[in-house]
Amino acid sequence: MYLCQICGNDISPTLLKCPYCGNVQDADEQQKFVKKAFLQKTVNLEKGLPTVDTALLHLQREIRSAKQEQIRVLTLIHGYGSTGKGGAIGRECRKTLDYLLQKGEIAAFVFGEEFSRKHGKTKDILNRFPDLGSHSHLGQQNRGITVVIVS
Ligand SMILES: [Zn+2]
Q1: Rounded CA gap, 33 and 2, in Å?
Q2: Range of the domain at 25
Q3: How far is the CA of 25 from the centre of ligand 1 (A)?
């Protein structure tokens, strides 16, 4: 929760101006808050039944804006399966993540089916981001999602 320094209303720490009182927020205070806060977001890449290309553009756009908004973790819903659009989006999405990881655009990612306390990779991520211990997909073996550590 980030409060306006003047009126005390709960506002987004990414807003320059408070929508309630119009006070221009102190950028340093916001920065301090954002660094402390653990922000995560769920992105449904299947929403609207996009083509694979559109879904991949959506993915790249979300990663860029996550960086700007200091979101640390993105949970991607991309579907799975060997056939159909969901399957193709899932496969291509994971390929794209591999590419982005190699380019250093993202810090790590873990497939839904490996997102469990038993997996070494997940353990490392949980050590770094203990807040993820309450993630609703943890231990669900959900092949239709991937958890991305943005930074
Ligand atoms: Zn205000």
Answers
A1: 7
A2: 2-34
A3: 8
The whole-angstrom separation of Cα 51 and Cα 88 is 9
C-alpha 119 to ligand 1 mean position (Å)? 45
Beta bridge partners of 108: 149
Say yes or no: 26 and 52 in one domain: no
Q: What is the pTM of this model?
A: 0.75
Regarding whether 15 and 44 lie in a shared domain, the answer is no
Question: pLDDT for 65-90, tens place per residue?
Answer: 999 888 899 999 999 877 766 689 99
Ligand 1 centroid–CA 5 distance in Å is 7
**Count of domains forming the chain:** 2
Strand, helix or coil for residue 3? strand
Query: What is the 17 CA–ligand 1 centroid distance (Å)?
Result: 8
Q: Are residues 63 and 20 in the same domain?
A: no
pLDDT in tens, 96-117: 999 999 999 999 999 999 999 9
Ligand 1 centre distance from Cα of residue 12 (Å): 11
